[in-house]
Amino acid sequence: MQEVFVPAVLGIVSLWCTFGSGTRLDVGSNSAPTLTVLPPSSEELSSTTTATLTCLANKGFPSDWTIRWKVDGTSQKQEASSRVLEKDGQYNWSSTLTLTGQEWNKAGGVTCEAQQNSQTPVTKTLRRADCSG
Ligand SMILES: *[C@@H]1O[C@H](CO)[C@@H](O)[C@H](O)[C@H]1NC(C)=O
């Protein structure tokens, strides 16, 4: 079995508040998407009472991964459905979670989780404390 180590690509919108490690893909079989959690923009936080987070899940296969959100370990009802894009046999998902500014302010960590069937999910956590500097 050939394994390829692919570095997480984080430069899509901003490097701010994103971090990650390499994701292992098994070529030609199921592969976990690479997750990136984008924090709410400072514009949104200063001009509205909401905080919208976006989770990008790139290059997964096949299409039956489910994207979910947790705030401090508690599952969230998804506010917006995930969009799925397919290209060259790989799938990208984009999911948004809308919190109130208050919920965001007291959140310690917001986690995006990608799960296939009932297998161990792949997760990425954005720590709000890392965003305040
Ligand atoms: C998925 O995301 C990657 C990285 O941003 C991009 O290169 C690729 O074209 C995207 N695929 C689709 C189907 O949008």
Number of strands: 10
Shape: elongated
Number of individual domains: 1
**Which secondary-structure class do the elements indicate?**
mainly beta
Given the structure, what is the number of helices? 2
**Strand coverage percent:** over 45%
Helix content: under 10%
Cα end-to-end separation: 44 Å
Radius of gyration: 15 Å
Strand neighbour order, sheet with most strands: 3-4-8-7
CATH architectural label: Sandwich
Give a description of the structure.
The chain is mostly beta strands and 133 residues long. The chain has one domain (29-130): Immunoglobulin-like. It has helices spanning 42-47, 101-106, and strands at 3-6, 23-26, 34-38, 50-60, 65-71, 74-75, 83-87, 90-100, 109-116, 122-127. The strands form three sheets. Strands 3-4-8-7 form a four-stranded antiparallel β-sheet. The protein has a four-stranded antiparallel β-sheet with strand order 6-5-9-10, with no helix packed on it. A hairpin with a 2-residue loop joins strand 5 (65-71) and strand 6. The chain is elongated, with a radius of gyration of 15 Å. The model is unreliable at 9-21 (pLDDT under 50). 2-acetamido-2-deoxy-beta-D-glucopyranose (NAG) is lined by residues 9, 12, 58-59, 85-87, 92. It comes from Oncorhynchus kisutch. Residues 33-123 form the Ig-like domain.
Pick out its properties:
133 residues; 9% helix; 47% strand; binds 2-acetamido-2-deoxy-beta-D-glucopyranose
